[in-house]
Amino acid sequence: MRAPIGDFDNARPAPEVLERLSAPVAAAVRGWEGTVSADELLFVDTDPDKADTAVFVETYGKELLETSANCVVIAAKRGGERTLAACVVLSSTRLDVNGAARRALGARKVSFAPHDAAVEGSGMEYGGITPVGLPADWPLLVDADVVALPWVLVGSGSRRGKLIVPGKALAGLPGAETVEGLGQRD
């Protein structure tokens, strides 16, 4: 099957390739109750050696610069308590961590989560963390521009492969909140 975005000839519905997904992502797909069918979550195989943004878009399609999103794990502090959360912003933007993210979480201080905390907390591989399958108790902030996309490319839980999903599907994930201006253009 041809993917709806990017130069991928190997798109397959995620429920058909559960063995290719990290455990938390496979569990989320298995128990999917989203606003779209689980068969609309598409898996595409990618080369982890081509994960750098410039090389990735050169290999898999220049339009992916505007149709792919990053899932960034952050640590929010409020009242002496530290909470991990995830933010999803377009790859062509930067996360407004000290503005929109901090306000949406009602936190006093927000910072990028340490590498080890992001991996351990999500159960996913660093560089492949995706909003699909994150712990249900994590706040999930999704930029409104991501939700508005017909299709968006996100991680698959590992560095090998990506998911292509309708943007609106991300707004229906557990703990998700759509936030205007979460991603800022330089």
Provide key terms for this protein.
186 residues; alpha+beta; five-stranded mixed β-sheet; four-stranded antiparallel β-sheet; 26% strand; globular
Question: Can you tell me about this structure?
Answer:
With 186 residues, this protein is α+β, with helices and mostly antiparallel strands. It is 25% helix and 26% strand. It has one domain (12-170): YbaK protein (Alpha-Beta Complex), CATH 3.90.960.10. The protein contains 7 helices and 11 strands. The strands form 3 sheets. The protein has a 5-stranded mixed beta sheet. Strands 1-2-9-8 form a 4-stranded antiparallel beta sheet. Strands 5-11 form a two-stranded antiparallel sheet. The longest helix is centred in the middle third of the chain and has 9 residues, at 97-105. The radius of gyration is 15 Å and the shape is globular. The termini are far apart. 45% of the residues are buried.
Short overview:
The chain is an alpha+beta fold. The chain has helices spanning 23-30, 53-60, 64-67, 97-105, 115-122, 144-147, 167-171, and strands at residues 12-13, 42-44, 69-78, 81-90, 94-95, 109-112, 140-143, 152-155, 162-165, 176-179, 183-184.
What's the alpha carbon Rg, rounded to whole Å?
15 Å
Query: In total, how many beta strands?
Result: 11
Order of helices and strands: EHEHHEEEHEHEHEEHEE
CATH architecture label:
Alpha-Beta Complex
Domains (count): 1
Sheet bearing the most strands, described?
A: 5 strands, mixed
Low-confidence stretches: none
Structural class from helices and strands?
A: alpha+beta
Overall 3D form: globular
CATH superfamily, called what?
YbaK/aminoacyl-tRNA synthetase-associated domain
